[in-house]
Amino acid sequence: MSAAYATFGLAPAMRAGGVLADGAYQVHRDFVDFIVDGRPLLFQLSDLDAVSPLAADVPPAIFTAQVRSLLLDAAPPLPGGRQVIYGCPECADLACGAVTAVIERDGDDYVWRDFAWQTEERADLELNGYHGIGPFRFRGEEYRAALRSLLDGTDPAAGRRRVLLIGARVALLAKLAAALRTIGIGADIAHDADHVPAEELRGYGAVAFGRAVGPDERAAVRGAFERAGVDVAYVDGLAPIVPLLVAQIEHALDRSPAERRRLTRLVAADGEAGVEVTSPCRVVLTAYRLDRLYRTHTRELFDGVLEPGRHRIALDAKAVKGDSYVVARTAGSVLVEAMAK
Fold it and tell me: What is the arithmetic mean of pLDDT over 298-306?
């Protein structure tokens, strides 16, 4: 079989959860993505909201079975030697659609070919094939080493999906914690981190501070995590708006390499949003605003597919006046910016 060699690797990735403008919830998923020739394979599939089968929240036995299947040490889950490469992030049901491919051995090499969008037991390559993707030929040693590292306990998707919330407004923190738990992120509320055992602190991936938390209190919390040797992301809450705070926390939890993200830049000023993406993808811009009575107003400003590069998007002046914030969201990441005065 003729196919030029491609490099194969793995990297942590995230499907960003959140509270959407219409009130719906989108679940958070950490997973391992496939890196082909130094670039996430998912980015070659246009705007696809999906995760690989190597998700951090699947039971260990299922995770191991997925790895063994990709190594061809177990029977493929679909007829014709087809494997699920990316599936639905909400339910993983084939009926929702999945990207599949044939994985086979050719000597010591592994070959991924005949990529297709599949919703039934058998794929229709003529109708639903990804004709511009693959085949990819991977050197066996590199391929096996990457996947077997997942079985050795070095799973790059094993993030800390737990957040410590510190602030004075208990009612707001309770709503925020409930929203985070709904999308699959654990959350605890505390006044400080004093006397918390180091083992517990190591379970957190982020700490979110309310606006009323003073500099001395913040410094004390940071000191507790430093003494425990925990590298944690810190979030300074922009405003008492739950969907906005959820978006800030989602961004903080994103540990994927910056150069392998689709959404890399957001600037909000002068009635415009500056957005930069690295591959074609759907981008949704949402504005959140507090009026003089501290009531929250939400407005979806843009929803469309952008090509790679930098884009300037005009914003509704009424939606971003006063104390307002802009959230940019793709399937894999989210950015938040205060509207520059």
Answer: 94
